[in-house]
Design a protein that fits this description.
15 helices; Aspartate Aminotransferase, domain 2; 7-stranded mixed sheet; alpha/beta
Length: about 375
């Protein structure tokens, strides 16, 4: 064994050494339909205005650690209830990590629970925070198995339950009554985290219900709204709970360029909302077109992506790659996703190119 291997074995946790890295595919030269991004940029005149705003940023100074100006815009424009505030993260990924670190008790093993399949960072963040993770399989139709969820909550007494709404990678909204039953079942010992990353496309939310439940946390990101490049997530909860979570947030975790870009974009949020409306319409068109292709099962989606099942997902994925179209092959994530692909909804032109390539791959 080499010296560096000995060093790694003696210093790095065994579960970290055994874990695979989070792989992001190189999309250079591809039509990129694998990451649920908004394909539209800001209009040209707004980009020029933003460039000037960014040019005036004092890069030599640390950010104002309270982030009061960008938080005020989020509170005013994105539906945060009166009397509630937000904390910010470097994308929702950091917020998930903050939640896990805050709830990872040192005197006993604490637990994160979530339906599965769902967003992979719930499990990864739980592991790296030293928490146990319990995944409760979805039913074959991709809906919540509420009795199984409630039984797992009763057995494991989780500190955190993550509920992706709509769920990634399935795209569906779990039944609201089932969500409420889970929130109530956690009352007194656990937090229910409703992850609304795709809220601009679902247009359904639990944000306005925060005052009903002391143990409810609502988390969102501006990534899917059209600002994936600035990496900004936010969450809201009861003020006393939010204050405790904010203790775990690293100081200066949001850089000044992200802060100014977010403030500017939220001043023009109507532009982003129109883009989301265009993508919702394109989602309906793409769903209908996919449903007309023989042998393709299309699942309902309230997100900016569509999950489909095909006879051979590996073959379809490879043929799309050969035509420079990149989608996400999720077939290995869980048995309920066997032979499934996830396709981001994009511009009419890119959707048409994908459909042509996909139809050819199924006919071959």
């Amino acid at each position: 064994m080499s010296a560096i291997d000995t060093l790694i074995n003696s210093t790095i946790r065994s579960d970290v050494r055994a874990a695979a890295g989070y792989h992001v595919a190189d999309a250079s030269g591809f039509i990129k339909l694998d990451a649920m991004e908004n394909p539209y940029q800001l209009p040209h005149h707004l980009r020029n205005d933003l460039a000037q705003r960014l040019a005036d940023v004092a890069l030599n100074r640390y950010p104002v650690a309270s982030y009061s100006t960008v938080k005020q815009r989020i509170n005013d424009k994105l539906g945060v209830p009166a009397g509630y505030d937000v904390i910010l993260g470097n994308g929702s990924d950091e917020l998930i990590s903050i939640l896990c670190m805050a709830c990872a008790t040192q005197d006993r093993r604490s637990t994160v629970l979530a339906p599965t399949p769902s967003f992979v960072m719930y499990q990864r963040s739980a592991q790296f925070a030293g928490m146990d993770y319990v995944g409760v399989p979805l039913k074959a139709d991709l809906t919540l198995d509420l009795p199984a969820m409630l039984a797992a909550i009763a057995q494991h007494k989780p500190s955190l339950v993550f509920l992706s709404y709509p769920n990634n990678p399935t795209g569906n909204l779990f039944a609201e009554d089932d969500m409420v039953a889970i929130i109530k079942a956690l009352d007194g010992f656990g937090l229910a985290v409703v992850d609304e990353a795709y809220e601009p496309f679902a247009q359904q939310t639990f944000m306005h219900r925060l005052p009903e439940f002391d143990n409810l946390v609502v988390m969102r990101t501006v990534s899917k709204l059209g600002l994936a490049g600035i990496r900004l997530g936010y969450l809201s909860a009861a003020p006393q709970l939010l204050a405790e979570l904010d203790k775990v947030r690293p100081p200066y975790n949001i850089n000044v360029l992200t802060q100014v870009a977010a403030e500017f974009a939220l001043d023009h949020v109507a532009v982003l909302n129109r883009q989301a409306a265009n993508l919702r319409a394109a989602r309906a068109d793409l769903t209908a077109a996919l449903a007309r292709i023989p042998g393709v099962e299309v699942f309902p989606s309230a997100a900016n992506f569509i999950l489909i099942r095909v006879p051979d997902s590996d073959d379809a994925y490879a043929k799309l790659l050969s035509r420079k179209v990149l989608v996400k092959n999720v077939s290995k994530m869980h048995s309920v996703l066997t032979n499934c692909l996830r396709i981001t909804v994009s511009t009419p032109e890119e959707n048409s190119t994908f459909l042509d390539a996909f139809a050819a791959s199924q006919a071959a």
